[in-house]
Every structure is written in C-alpha cells, then in structure tokens.
Amino acid sequence: MARPLSFDRTASLEAAMILFWQRGYQACALPDLLATMNISRSSLYASFGDKRQLFIECLDLFFQRTFNPLCTPPSPAKISEEFAGNNINHSLNSIEHFFRYTLLQVPKQRRECGCLLVNTVLEMADQDSELSAFAAEKLSHVEQYFIECFAQAKSENAINNDASAEELGQLCMTLNQGLRVACRQGRSQEELESILHNSLRMLGIQSTREQP
Question: What is the CATH classification number for the domain harbouring 120?
Fold first, then answer.
C-alpha cells in the first residue's frame, strides 16, 4: 500500500512556483526549494520526481493560473465588468482585458517578476532547449488566443487594420513578451500603461480608457 502524503502537495507546488518565478530555474538550489516547500528530499523525489520535473509542473501551474482562464474563445461573459456597456468590440476588449488582468492589475512585487514562461524561454534557450520549448508551447496558446480575437473582430469589421489576424496576433504576442521584460527592468506602472495604450492604438484597438 502506498504511503499517504504527509504534506499539502498543492501548497508545496505553489511555493516552488513562486521561488522559480522570483529567481529562475538555475538559481534555485535544491536546499532552498526544500526549505520553501517545507518538505524533505525524499518527499520531493517521491511526489515530484526531481527538480526538473518539479519545474515543469510549476510552468504548467503558472499557465493554468495566469493565462488559461483568459485563453478561451472570446465571449462577452468573459470580459471584466469595467469594460461592460461601451461600444468597443468584445473581441478587442478581450485583448485589452488580458493585459490589464495579467499585467497592470497585479501587485507591484508580482508584476516585477515578469512572466515565468517568458523568463524560462529566455533563460533556458541555450541551457535546456526542451524546457525552453515547453514554456514556448504554453505561450503559443496565448498567441492563438490573440489570433482568434483578431479573427473574430475582422469578421465583424470591427478593426481598421489591413494585416491578417495571424500577423496581428503575432505582433500582440511580441508586445506581451516585451512588456514582461519591461516589468523585470522595473518600468513604472505609468510607463507600462503608456506603452500598452500606444501599442493597442497602433494595432487598431481603441482602448476602453478612451471612452467618454
């Protein structure tokens, strides 16, 4: 009979995710992870495998918590109440809401950690191509979400931009990654707001902040 876990696996995984998010994969020594997770080395190996497998679980958890709730087919029901009642297309609203929900409306300490997935793509590109690719695959779902939003807006003639939905989605993803790096650089909330506002305008998205 398998021995029952003597710790809260979910809480330990969340603790590890935060430490990886703050420090990066390579800077997280195993003793620090064990202390943060409040588990023994044997419990880590029995429940999570090794550090690398633990990290993969943390990447998946980060995606599920941060992006997956938003990366669904655009729906008015998914839009925050602060965007309700205006005349902007719901699909384009969804894009702005994505950035505000995952970037601008989060605590400063969390925002300055950037994005664990983007951080991993950059950190592990030359160190572990499989980990980098795993993080990039998660981010591809975000890019596809942007593409679907633009495709729907174009089908409704709600956006004045000659680029294809795929091209606009790729540009939006580049904006997303750039903003996450800017957060790591300590750019202020006001600077991030300005970058987002101007970038959305160039993409053909009228910000809800411009509504009367």
Answer: 1.10.357.10
